[in-house]
Every structure is written in C-alpha cells, then in structure tokens.
C-alpha cells in the first residue's frame, strides 16, 4: 500500500526546494546561453551582462507565467458558476473541510475524463476538470477526484510541477520526461490518492473514478501538449492499476 512518505511540513519544504531549483535552473540556463553567444560574438563581458539581465527575466517569467501557460496548453476555460454549479458547490465544501481557499475552476472541452491542478500556492491554485469527467462521474466519484486534486494544493505538489511546464516545453523528450518526474516528486499521484481519501474518508469514490479513467485507455487529453503530461490525474508516469490496488487496501 502506498503511504505518505513524509509529514506535510516535510513534503511542503521539499516541494519549495524543487521550485527554487527550477527557477534557478532557468536563470542559469539562459545566462550560460547568452554569455556563450556573447563570447562567440567577440564580447564575453557584454554577453555576461546581457545574460544576467535576460536570465533574471527568464526566472521571473517562469515564476509568474507558468500557471497561465499550463492552462493555455490544456485549453482550459473558466467554469461558469451556474452551468457548473455541482462542481463549484462540491469544491467549496471540500475546501471548507480541508481548510483551503477555493481555487479557480476551469473546464476543458473533451470527452475524456481527467483533471489537473496548477498554481504556485493554495491562494493561487486552479483546478481543471474535463467535460468528460463531469459528465461520466457520480457525485461521490467526482468528490474523490476533487479531493485528490486539492491534496496537491495543500501539499504544494502544484508548485514545482507547475514551474516545470515552461522548461519542459523547450526540452527534448528524454530530458523533458526526466524533468517532469523530478519536479512532480516520487509517486505524486499515488500520494495524492492517499491524502485525498483521507479528506473524503471514502476510498470507493476515487477507486470508481480511477477505474473509469482506466477504462478510457492510456494517455492524457492534452492535445499533444507533452509539457503538461505530468499534471493530469491519469499521469502516464504512474500505473493506475497499482494506484487502485493501493486504495483497496485502505
């Protein structure tokens, strides 16, 4: 059975360290590239100066724009409070129970059931659900999925996973996969399952939801946007059958 490998404080601290490393990596990468280009152009000093400036800008962009970039890649649109009243009401109830502020809610128009969460902190989080998820799940199943996603918010799992998106978007496939797995942390989705059902106290709801995702087949509804693969509930990095088996032991 998958259990939380660390307490909440330790997990949050680890996620913040990974986030800091990601921003630093973006700054250093741009700094090195610009400095080398400056040296090749005949002025290493000028290249270094420009590298520092551009690197700082790159770090700021990664920190401030990662969430909007991920939402854009997912083709997510705000969830209307009247049309998606069930989702809004369910999220409000779970947030009250979890002691979290209500995140922004978004919808992706696709028949495939799935969900993701992005953001830098609980106050800047966004939960995204596909229309296929909302149409195919019962209230208890949807509650299990939302609780899973909110656990990523509370654990700050969303922070490094979100900041990794801009870098993942420019890296070759092998490096992109390595970066996303490192940024997400070990067993991110399995840990989210366990902490999510700790909130709902009803493992069968999430189990049934994951079984429906498994029935739909592998892959994620990202329209080919590989840089956000690791954010989806049905992450290709973790085996859904193993996650279901672990939940059955709770």
Considering the chains and any ligands shown, give keywords for the structure:
250 residues; alpha+beta; four-stranded mixed sheet; 63% helix; elongated
Short description:
With 250 residues, the protein is an alpha+beta fold. The longest helix is centred in the N-terminal third of the chain and has 33 residues, at 8-40. Strand 3 and strand 4 (126-130) form a beta hairpin.
How would you describe the overall organization of this protein?
This protein is of the alpha+beta class and 250 residues long. The chain contains ten helices and four strands, in the order H-H-E-H-E-E-E-H-H-H-H-H-H-H. It starts with 7 loop residues before the first helix and ends with a helix. The protein has a four-stranded mixed β-sheet, with helices on both faces. The model is unreliable at 1-5 (pLDDT under 50). The protein has one domain.
Number of strands: 4
Number of separate helices:
10
Q: Which series of helices and strands comes N to C?
A: HHEHEEEHHHHHHH
In terms of quaternary structure, the protein is: single chain
Secondary-structure content class? alpha+beta
Count of discrete domains: 1
Largest sheet: 4 strands, mixed
Fraction of residues in H or I helices: 55-70%
The overall pLDDT average reads: 89
Return Rg in Å: 19 Å
Low-confidence stretches: 1-5
Largest beta sheet: strand ordering: 1-2-4-3
């Amino acid at each position: 059975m998958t259990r939380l490998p660390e307490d909440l404080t330790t997990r949050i601290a680890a996620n913040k360290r990974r986030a800091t490393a990601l921003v630093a990596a973006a700054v250093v990468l741009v700094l090195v590239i610009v400095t080398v280009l400056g040296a090749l152009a005949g002025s290493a000093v000028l290249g270094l100066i420009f590298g520092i400036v551009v690197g700082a800008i790159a770090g700021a962009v990664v920190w401030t724009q990662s969430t909007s970039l991920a939402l854009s890649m997912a083709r997510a649109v705000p969830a209307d409070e009247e049309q998606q009243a069930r989702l809004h009401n369910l999220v409000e109830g779970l947030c009250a129970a979890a002691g979290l502020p209500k995140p922004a809610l978004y919808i992706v128009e696709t028949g495939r059931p799935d969900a993701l969460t992005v953001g830098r902190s609980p106050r800047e989080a966004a939960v995204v659900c596909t229309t296929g998820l909302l149409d195919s799940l019962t209230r208890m199943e949807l509650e299990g999925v939302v609780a899973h996603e909110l656990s990523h918010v509370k654990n700050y799992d969303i922070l490094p996973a979100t900041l990794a998106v801009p870098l993942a978007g420019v890296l070759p496939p092998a490096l992109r996969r390595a970066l996303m797995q490192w940024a997400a942390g070990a067993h991110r989705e399995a840990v989210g399952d366990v902490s999510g059902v700790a909130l709902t106290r009803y493992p069968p709801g999430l189990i049934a939801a994951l079984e429906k995702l498994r029935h739909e087949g592998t892959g994620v509804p990202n329209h080919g946007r590989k840089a956000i693969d690791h954010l989806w509930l049905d992450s290709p990095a973790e085996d859904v059958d193993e996650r279901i088996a672990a939940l059955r032991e709770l």
